[in-house]
Amino acid sequence: MALLGPISFHEDGWDWDTGFPAGDWAHFASYTKRVRSFSYDGKLYDEEGLTEDHLSPDVPAKLLYYVAINRGAYLLPQNQKLRWRASTDNDLQMILPFLSPALREVDIEAQWEVSYSGTSRLLRTLHAALPHDITSIRFVPNEQMGDESEEVMSNALNARSCLRALRLPLCPVNASMLIPNLRILEAEFGEAWNADPGAFFLDLSEQCPLIEDLRIIFLSDWMLTVESVRPLLRCSKLRSLDLESPGEVDLRDKDITDMGNAWRDLEAFHISSRRGYISRSMLPTGTPIASLVTFAQAFSPKLRKLAIHINSSSAPLPPNPPRIQAQGKWRMDYKCGLGHAVGEAL
Asked: How many CB atoms are located within 10 Å of the residue 117 CB?
């Protein structure tokens, strides 16, 4: 904020009263017209950890006053990238005069003490104020979005056909998110498409043929299956695929070969890799460890990150293996090369 004019910071916030005398808006504007990227964080960190420093409560009124006396001028008329981290409803309210028609990328997080009503008000504001040719939206509320907020978000997306990146990790995916120009999509999977991931992936492959980066979070362990993923084989431009499910999605060699042939540009692949702990008394599950060889053979060398649940119980052992007394702790570092592993004693 200090770059926007002669404003200094003190223990209670930014000093708009003495550091920014009335009538000095011309000097203020000489800075703001140069800004192309702006970031605000309502919670600041210093050497002692988390602090309570953020803009004082009277700032929104002063910013809106500037907008009013300049016939609706925006604080940052040429700004193209806006990153906003709000910890209170007051912080969230302050974003309004920063939503200029030049914006192309918006990244908003509502944290800590932001209320549900404050988040809902912001979504209605975004629906009305965001440029129709915006290309990137990331929005993370501090709690799950309700039906009303989801509807407002859907209406906002319906009017933004130029979107290339859409990251809504706490919002259930719906038809309004399937924008033909989309390259990046992050969302939860809920009850849409009759809770059938295969139907969703089929629609996605048909309506978003340019998709490159896909992250879908499944909250129920029964939803995702290997067969439901197969429609994504039509998405030949995928570079990163992250399908997180608490359930078991174990790949066979044929599945791995088909995926490797379809996704020649894939660089990162995560599927059901964070499932819960399995008791030793239960039968081991997971993709057989020998299938790592199939990954190495089927996928392009571009694949650099692989996260799957491995079943190592079928690993071949030599007859009468020697007993080795463990010395200290060991760290295993698996790297996609693909089966490259390095172990070292700690």
From this structure: 9
The helix or strand, by DSSP H or E, that contains position 256, with its residue range, turns out to be helix 253-262
Those residues with Cβ within 8 angstroms of residue 259's Cβ, 6 or more apart along the chain or in another chain: 233, 251, 266, 269, 298, 299
Task: Return d(Cα 202, Cα 94) in angstroms, integer.
Answer: 41
Its pTM stands at 0.81
The whole-angstrom separation of Cα 8 and Cα 19 is: 6
> Residue 11, class by beta-carbon neighbours within 10 Å (0-12 exposed, 13-18 middle, 19+ buried)?
exposed
Question: Dihedral of the CA atoms 42, 45, 46, 52 (nearest 10)?
Answer: 50
Structure confidence by residue, pLDDT tens digits, 253-287: 999 999 999 999 999 999 986 655 555 555 557 88
Contact 243, 216 (CB under 8 A): yes
User: Quick check: helix, strand or coil at residue 138?
Assistant: strand
Residues in contact with 29: Cβ distance below 8 Å, sequence separation at least 6, in sequence order: 70, 73
- In this structure, are residues 247 and 223 in contact, taking their beta carbons and an 8 Å threshold? yes
- In the DSSP assignment, the letter for residue 215 is E
> CA–CA separation, 91 vs 113, rounded Å?
10
